[in-house]
From TrEMBL:
Residues 3-78 form the DUF7999 domain. This is DUF7999 domain-containing protein.
Length: 85
């Protein structure tokens, strides 16, 4: 299952295991992003502080529940209000 690009708020910054927790708008569902389409996607997410809003397209990462792969990543704005690519 793959989602279309949706807006998510970072609620937990990327940890040492490359896991970032995000909350979907407007449904308030929580997703644990543990895989990335490429290093660029991983690096973009790694740079996001808590409170940042990002547009991502997610797909399931394996068969485990609620773990996801970021297929595309585009920053909407960070907690500082910056607009990114």
């Amino acid at each position: 299952m793959m989602s279309g690009p949706n807006a998510y708020t970072v609620i937990s910054e990327q940890n040492d295991h490359d896991c970032t927790t995000v909350r979907a708008h407007p449904r308030n569902e929580t997703f644990h992003v543990v895989e990335y389409a490429d290093e660029d996607a991983r690096d973009r997410v790694a740079d996001l502080p808590v409170g940042s809003v990002v547009k991502m397209e997610l797909s399931r990462a394996g068969r485990r529940s609620n773990v996801w792969r970021a297929e595309s990543v585009r920053t909407a704005h960070t907690d500082g209000g910056t607009v990114g690519e």
